[in-house]
Design goal:
The protein has 2 domains: about 30-50 and about 290-405, Lyase, Ornithine Decarboxylase, Chain A, domain 1 (Beta Barrel), CATH 2.40.37; about 50-285, Alanine racemase (TIM Barrel). It contains 9 helices and 22 strands. Helix 1 (about 50-65) crosses helix 2. The strands form 4 sheets. Strands 1, 2, 13, 14, 15, 16, 18, 19, 21 and 22 form a 10-stranded mixed beta sheet that branches. It is an alpha/beta fold. It binds pyridoxal-5'-phosphate. Pyridoxal-5'-phosphate (PLP) binds near residues 77, 95 and 282. The site of pyridoxal-5'-phosphate has 17 residues, from helix 9.
Length: about 400
Amino acid sequence: MVHRVRSGRWPYHPFGAALLPHVTTTTATTSDPSTPPALTGSGATPFVSVDLTAVGSAYRTLRRALPGVALHYAVKANPARPVLEVLARHGASWDVASPGEIDAVLEVDPRPERLSYGNTVKKAADIAHAHARGVQQFALDSDAELDKLVALAPGATLLVRLATSGAGADWALGHKFGCPEVQAARLLARAVAHGHPVGVCFHVGSQQHDPHAWDEPLAAAGRLRNALRAMGADLDVVDLGGGFPALGTVDPVPVAQRFGEGIRASLRRHLGDDLPALMAEPGRFLVADAGFLETEVVLVTERAGVRWVYVDAGLFSGLAETMGEAIRYRITAHRGRASLTGAVAPVVVAGPTCDSLDVLYRRHRPALPVSLRPGDRLRFRAAGAYTTTCSSVGFNGFRPLREQFR
Ligand SMILES: Cc1ncc(COP(=O)(O)O)c(C=O)c1O
C-alpha cells in the first residue's frame, strides 16, 4: 500500500466544487443513467467496478496533453491484469515499485526496457531481480541506494529523486521520498562517475490541484543539468512523476490540457528547447475516474445527536485514502436500480470493522439522503485507484474488496 500523509489542503481548487464535496442528487428518485443496469443494486458488496474503456480514454487524454512525454503507468494505482492489458494496447510504458509489479507487467508487455523502477527504497535482492529481468532504469534518493545500484545494476539509467513540498496536493509524498537539490547534485555526479546515464525524477504529490506545481522541481532540474554540463556530462531524462488528479464529474479534457500547458511552460522556462527525454508516471488520473466502489448500508443510527451511517467497506477494505479525510470521495446513494434522492443531511460515515479507527469522514460530513436505510447502497465515485490493493486480506473476517470490469 502506498502510505501517504496529507499535506495542508491548497486553498485554491481549479475544479470548483465538483470533486471535493460529498454530493448526492436532490431531486426525485430516478434511475441512474450512468450505471450499467447489470451492476445497479446487484452483486455482493463491497466491490470496485472499473470501466476499461474509460481507462483507455484517460490515457489518450493525457497523451494529448503531454506530447513528447512517455507515459509510464504507475502500476500501484491499480495493478489488475485487465487494466494493464488495456494500457499495454494503448502503448503505455510502466512505473513499477516491486518485483511483483515487474513480473505482472512483463506478463502483458515483455519489453523490460519500458519499465522504470520508481521506488527509491529497494532490497538488494529486488534490484538484482529487476536487473536480471532486463529493467534498465531505477530511482534513488540516497547514497546507500546508489551504492546498491552501482553494484547490482551496472549500466542502468539512474534517476535521482528530488524532494518536493507537496503544496497543492491532497497527499504529499515529499516528507518520505526525495532529497534536497544539493544532495541530488552530488548523487548525480557520483552516478556519472560510475558510468551511468542519469536523470532526475520527482513527485509533486498525489491528487495535485495546482498545474504550476511542477515549476519548482523543473527549475531545480534545469540547475542540475547546468551543473552536469559544467562537468562534461548531461541530464538524459526528466521524469515528471505523477500527481495528475482524478476529477469526479469534471470533464478531464480541459483540465488535462491546463496541466499540460503549465508543465510545458515550465519545461520551456527551465530547460529550453533542447529537452532531455521526458517521461511521467501517472497513476490516479488513468484509473480513478474509471471506477466506483459500491458498499451496502449496514446501519443508520444516532450517536450524541449526530447521524452515523455504517457501510460494509472501510479503512481496511479499500478506502485507505480516507485516512486523515484526505481523499474525499463523492458519494451517491442508491436503492435497487434507482438513485436515492430527496432531503439530505450531514452524516458521519464509518466502516464495518471493530476498530475505532475505521471511521471515514467525521469532520467533513457528507450530505446523504435522510431516507437512507440498511440495504441501500453508497457508491464512492472516482475510486478506481488505490482501493483494491489497499484492502486487508481479511481483518475481522471481512473478505477483501472484489473488482469487476466492464
Ligand atoms: C514513484 C511514484 N510515481 C508515480 C506515482 C503515481 O502518482 P499518482 O497516482 O498521483 O499519479 C506514485 C504514487 O504514489 C509514486 O510513488
